[in-house]
Amino acid sequence: xxxxxxxxxxxxxxxxxxxxxxxxxxxxxxxxxxxxxxxxxxxxxxxxxxxxxxxxxxxxxxxxxxxxxxxxxxxxxxxxxxxxxxxxxxxxxxxxxxxxxxxxxxxxxxxxxxxxxxxxxxxxxxxxxxxxxxxxxxxxxxxxxxxxxxxxxxxxxxxxxxxxxxxxxxxxxxxxxxxxxxxxxxxxxxxxxxx
Length: 195
Prior knowledge:
The protein has about 200 residues and is α/β, with parallel strands linked by helices. The protein has helices at about 20-35, 50-60, 85-100, 115-120, 130-145, 150-160, 165-170, 185-195; strands spanning about 15-20, 40-45, 75-80, 105-110, 185. A 5-stranded mixed beta sheet has the order 2-1-3-4-5, with helices on both faces.
């Protein structure tokens, strides 16, 4: 006589297509910290000016390991850099079209840089744009050592004690994607995947 086995619900696969080393290290650490076994972080963006949605879409089409199904969550993470408002709007429309096809596709955006999101783990962030130098100095101060982009130990320190929930709260007023003000919607993405 065989036992009835309960059907285990498979967690959706999560793909984080990221712009740089700092984002890659953060999302890998986040995946490990919150046991997101179905998450994969792919660094695809090495030079600004490229259309990240097209590049991510091409990689998913051409790499069998990255082929999404209708439960896959795709997040394309990038900084404003030299993108115009028009280019960002085009990428948002492309991400919406990808979502209509099969999977969920969202853009993760930070204006000025990803460090806006990292600093939010320690303080409330405002819409006033701060220079990269100031962001790095503030991160150095809260970390108690010189901030180094993409440093895995520092990333583990940032994620310790579930400060990510604090960061989500600290960025609620700057989640709208905009090129005119400091902004980051990374908290919405993180909240979605760790819920």
